[in-house]
Amino acid sequence: MSPQTLTITIDPDAADAPFEQVRAQIADRARGGGLPVGFKLPTVRGLAEDLGLAANTVAKAYRALEADGVIETRGRHGSFIAAAGEAADKEVAAAAETYARRAKRLGLDHGAALEAVEDALRAAYGTDG
């Protein structure tokens, strides 16, 4: 796939709903660099027509992508791939806040909560520290 082309495939037999398939494919390509920051997405109606979906289905996917910070809508100018770092920073901050609140509710002290995060990071990144 050329970085300037948006190709989405909808599998009618997939467990995921069509809007989720659209959302996931755009998000994966944006985060993977296949869709560069600033790439203009097709209009909701245009993409819906290309995919044989209802416009509301594509609109739902675009709303979810915007809520996740993957795309930004600029009014009548259209929807564009947003800076991925900003979305990742927001998502990680939200996850960290959720974790901190949960750890406190479970009665972990600061040190134990931090140790659990460090263990998880070592496992995820395959490092010793």
Automatic annotation (TrEMBL):
SUPFAM superfamilies: Winged helix' DNA-binding domain (SSF46785). SMART domains: HTH_GNTR. InterPro entries: Tscrpt_reg_HTH_GntR, WH-like_DNA-bd_sf, WH_DNA-bd_sf. Gene3D superfamilies: Winged helix-like DNA-binding domain superfamily/Winged helix DNA-binding domain. Pfam families: GntR (PF00392). It comes from the Bacteria. This is GntR family transcriptional regulator. One of its GO terms (molecular function) is DNA-binding transcription factor activity. Keywords: DNA-binding, Transcription, Transcription regulation. PROSITE patterns: HTH_GNTR.
